[in-house]
Design brief:
single chain, 178 residues, alpha+beta, Jelly Rolls, 2 domains, five-stranded antiparallel sheet, 36% strand
């Protein structure tokens, strides 16, 4: 009787070990094929007096424009804009990301380029984020991150001298325009 009980316990233990081995074996052999995109950092530094002033103001304050190209279509980008005063102190900064609208299909062309807002780093209550992570909106053709021209409108809410540092993390090349 004791041998039979011991034999049953060993059988259950062996079955358990065999199942554990199979579980480890099959899970280790079934790795997911996840393609990881490499992301690079693209940085642009400029002074407020070197940047073109925008006619479209943020909160009725001096607003500057920075232009860049995405050289290929991408899923997402991460944008950060830092404004520093003459003393190197960080100041509050608002920015809006816009894309150039392709108007080639329209019979009547506007005199000026048309830009469409994709994202901004503040909400309706003026709560700011230091950076924004923007992804393509598949449901809105005007909010897709396609190859093309983009504009950042930036304001530090006064007419003082500022240094703006723009960082864009992207899996595709970014080219800033001077």
């Amino acid at each position: 009787m004791k041998n039979n009980l011991l034999h049953n316990k060993l059988s259950i233990f062996n079955i358990f070990m065999y199942l554990l081995f199979l579980l480890v074996f099959f899970t280790s052999c079934s790795t997911a094929n996840i393609k990881r995109e490499s992301v690079k950092l693209y940085t642009f530094i400029s002074y407020s007096y070197d940047l073109p002033k925008s006619k479209e103001l943020i909160d009725k304050t001096p607003t500057y424009e920075v232009y860049f190209d995405l050289l290929e279509e991408t899923r997402c980008i991460d944008i950060s804009v830092v404004a520093q005063d003459r003393n190197g102190k960080r100041v509050r900064c608002a920015f809006i990301l816009e894309s150039l609208v392709d108007i080639s299909r329209f019979p009547k062309k506007p005199l000026q380029p048309v830009y469409s807002e994709i994202a901004k780093n503040f909400d309706s209550n003026w709560r700011f984020q230091s950076n924004i992570f923007v992804c393509t909106d598949d449901t809105d053709p005007l909010k897709r991150l396609t190859k093309g021209n983009y504009r950042l409108k930036i304001s530090a809410f006064s007419n003082n001298y500022y240094t703006f540092t723009i960082d864009i993390k992207s899996s595709v090349p970014v080219e800033f325009k001077k």
